[in-house]
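Quick note —
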Amino acid sequence: MIKIGSKTIGAKNSPFIIAEMSGNHNQSLDRALSIVDAAADAGADAIKLQTYTADTMTLDIKKGDFFIDDPKSLWKGQSMHDLYKLAYTPWDWHKPIIEHARSKDLLCFSTPFDETAVDFLESLEVPAYKIASFECIDLPLIKKVASTKKPLIISTGMATKVEITEAVDAARSVGCKDLILLKCTSTYPASPKNTNLNTISHMRKLFNCEVGLSDHTLGIGAAVAAVAVGASVIEKHFTLSRADGGVDSAFSLEPSELSSLVSETKRAFQALGEISYGATEAEISSRSRRRSLYIGENMKAGEVLTAKNLRRIRPGNGLLPKYYEKLLGKKIKFDTPKGTPVSWDLILED
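Predicted structure written out below.
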């Protein structure tokens, strides 16, 4: 069980829902604040930012390794530096966004991408940190973040078991006790076929920590399914409207979808319950609607029970149907009207 602010994360709690703002503010602080409002109204537990500058992410080179030419990429045709300039959240926005989130009872924390971002976020007293999948192998950064002793969430897109082990060991080596790993598929959008949610329960056992899903698939189906295999945290990118555009808008949820995510993951969590057989407390009254043995015709004392006058029907106030064969050919003790539930005291012993 992990506490982030007033929220508790664990197997006995409803999923912790993180709305990832990323660059969906489209370089408007007013829009960023509106995204906070919409996330709070939808019932999210947290809003998450990303803290970097283009220069802390990459080099300002517009060719070769630093130019995106993958035809499958949403960002094809841009240099990495230009993309990060477009997507970054100005650092002087962080404080007003965090304060606005607090006023909405919404947790706000961030993904730092270098040590200067960690120091900056510490000055703002953020309650937790997130490491992005692409930085899962940046062990010095993980150690810097983990040394704050605050809850740490690490996305694991692309990471092998060895790489995740190294990240976990790095975090724990400097005192991180509250660790959450997120299963993630680092394609944008991601395909459900490549999501492999069954990894979640395995990851929980392997690393002995809370596990969730950072979900880049479209819709909420994968996230709901993740709860069924043990996810205690769900992170989804969030925007006011995909039609407004933005660097991550194509795979981001809109407000009504985030609201559905919150309610449906909660229902999924509630439905898991415990290992249970037999009637639940809520089902006890329904047992009377099961089938049982009834007298199907008016009968006189001494008459024999047959397939015609001994019926297996609803409701369930008579003997169980499993006694049907045993009772065929037996005689009854006294006159019995049609519709009488069969009990042992009605049966004449041989």
